Amino acid sequence: RMASDSPESLMRLCTDYCLRNLEGTLCYLLDNQTLRLHPDIFLPSEICDKLVNEYVELVKTDSIFEPHESFFTLFSDPRSTRLARIHLREQIVQDQDLEAIRKQDLVELYLTNCEKLTAKSLQTLVSFSHTLISLSLFGCCNIFYEEENPGGCEDDCLVNPTRQVLVKDFTFEGFSRLRFLNLGRLIDGVNVESLLRPLAALAALDLSGIQLSDLGFLTQWKDTLVSLVLYNMDLSEEHIQVITQLHKLRHLDISRDHLSSYYKFKLTRRVLSLFVEHLGNLSSLDISGHTMLENCTIPSMEEKMGQTSIEPAKSSIAPFRGLKRPLQFLGLFETSLCRLAHIPAYKVSGDKQEEQVLNAIEAYTEHRPEITSRAINLLFDIARIERCSQLLRALQLLITALRCHKDDKNIQVTGSAALFYLTNSEYRTEQSVRLRRQVIQVVLNGMEAYQEVTVQRNCCLTLCNFSIPEELEFQYRRVNELLLSILNQSRQDESIQRIAVHLCNALVCQVDNDHKEAVGKMGFVMTMLKLIQKKLADKTCDQVMEFSWSALWNITDETPDNCEMFLNYSGMKLFLECLKEFPEKQELHRNMLGLLGNVAEVRELRPQLMTAQFIGVFSNLLESKADGIEVSYNACGVLSHIMFDGPEAWGICEPHREEVVKRMWAAIQSWDINSRRNINYRSFEPILRLLPQGISPVSQHWATWALYNLVSVYPDKYCPLLIKEGGIPLLKDMIKMASARQETKEMARKVIEHCSNFKEENMDTSR
């Protein structure tokens, strides 16, 4: 089975269902607004953790999912719901949400970029102090601020709104079990040393983006600290001295974003040698973004021969020859060292080739979007210029990055561009349904979040790599709404407009009528007519114009409501103007006449076509040779339905009904019965209804000719359809009718014969 094609776990499906239907499953609504858990429910932490974490994910990545203000109150009582490990992100979580779960015995709490949290939440953290082992406050830039009212009286409040004041006296006193702590991007002014001093045995510490001149206090954990992250900290010789004393370190990250600001510190051969010499347990080191002050490399004969080795003894980076064993991970992204042949590590992040780039995206996505977007840009180049050899991994990493950083423009631009190349037909066979659906979801997220031209174009182009409408059907409403909103923007990019109209057309082709009706109600007909109007004003007949008429032809097929909308929004006026402005445009004429054929099939709307001007136009188009027989055929189809209403419905003096009938006979007789067709019938019902009647023999003849042509030229498709829809008995009955013309009866016999031959040839004789 294809990788990643395994179905979602039952736990995941149930969690998703419950979250989307809280009222119908776990909860009821109190006073029509507050969610309450049913009293007989008890849920263990394995389930509650998943509910909370999945809820956060849904709010972040699914635009249709509605967040509940009282969601976190469901977990306020540990007697009915238990929480242990939860990951909360961004604007989704506020002070009152953490406050609601303060009685829980949390073991792991990750708060990532939760900018709405204030110092009130610091106090709530104290409630978890006796159980918390792992805590992340990464990017919670306001959690050390509290609101202060300087005046203290009500009048003053109006003059001076609340002011943000830094909390200076909070420490991790009492957090006796805390071992893993991430304070990344902590705001300036907090005294990190006094904050951390009470912690007895820290094992992992992340101080990303914090500038500290003195790291000496870290030595109090020299016997316990196994992981230290100092990303974007400007280092000094003193810092290095402290780091080398932390002899238990297994993971050290001193990497930096070389674009973010000027760093005085330069890495030397000596510093790397000190790490190797003093940190004997080191298995992961990240020095990405650093400039080497001197040459650390050893020229090697084998480099030219293309053989690579991860053995420390053969290392091209001189200081690493002293390693006892290869590193598990070595971060060399945006350094010259990643281009060397012998790098003593199993996994390397860098910018030299695909494997290194994918390792970089994997390592930096969650907390370093600024680095990730540059790594994705490199992946984009690989996907565009070479062939991507780790397609599944690349796609999964891209999906994760785009989900995680829905609001990061750089990642959305580069990620959507890379997705376009990684989903094209060359890679199609390697992708599962589930994976392709995930791609569609992130593409639609990007379109929703960004009205920006590049993202919109990339996303629209990526959607063109999918089978439409089949692969987009699970998001049918959403994708149509997004495309229509793009097409309704006042200022439009030509290329996006063209792709969006093409997608709209494909989406309404070959889908159920209820889909078409739903899209019609979204304003589809009006949007297409507006585009046509604009193009007419510019006297331009381009792909947008042709696709718009084609989309209207598709959306009105057997959908009377949409046909009526077309007439109500002055569609006939635009039809006449287009015909006059672009007399030579065959494709355009075919699309317009196809659409009017659909309108003419609706009995209640036919009186609106009964004007001297319209009938005159349709009659003249009978002689058209545009697009083979298509324009003439469709014009005759429109008139056949009008004739079917009988002489009493002919409410005009000119042209005479008999004269038009004569022209219809002449047109039908001029068509080649073996014509290949530019048309696609899903049902013969509108044609078959013209057979059992004597009021308009010419309509009967047109319908019979249509059936004869289609079953002759495309028997495999249309013989079964005609048989299934009961066409044969109708034809047999017509042959017995006195009013039917002899040539029509002859043709009907041939249709019956074709279908019976087809049936015999395709009978299954195997036993």
From TrEMBL:
The keyword rRNA-binding does not apply. Signal peptide: none annotated. The keyword Acetylation applies. SMART domains: ARM (SM00185). Coiled coil: none annotated. Residues 402-756 form the Protein zer-1 homolog-like C-terminal domain. SUPFAM superfamilies: ARM repeat (SSF48371), RNI-like (SSF52047). Pfam families: LRR_Zer-1, ZER1-like_2nd. Residues 194-335 form the Zer-1-like leucine-rich repeats region domain. Keywords: Acetylation, Leucine-rich repeat, Repeat, Ubl conjugation pathway. One of its GO terms (cellular component) is Cul2-RING ubiquitin ligase complex. Interacts with the ELOC-ELOB/Elongin BC complex. Part of an E3 ubiquitin ligase complex including ZER1, CUL2 and Elongin BC. Belongs to the zyg-11 family. This is Protein zer-1 homolog. The lineage of its organism: Eukaryota, Metazoa, Chordata, Craniata, Vertebrata.
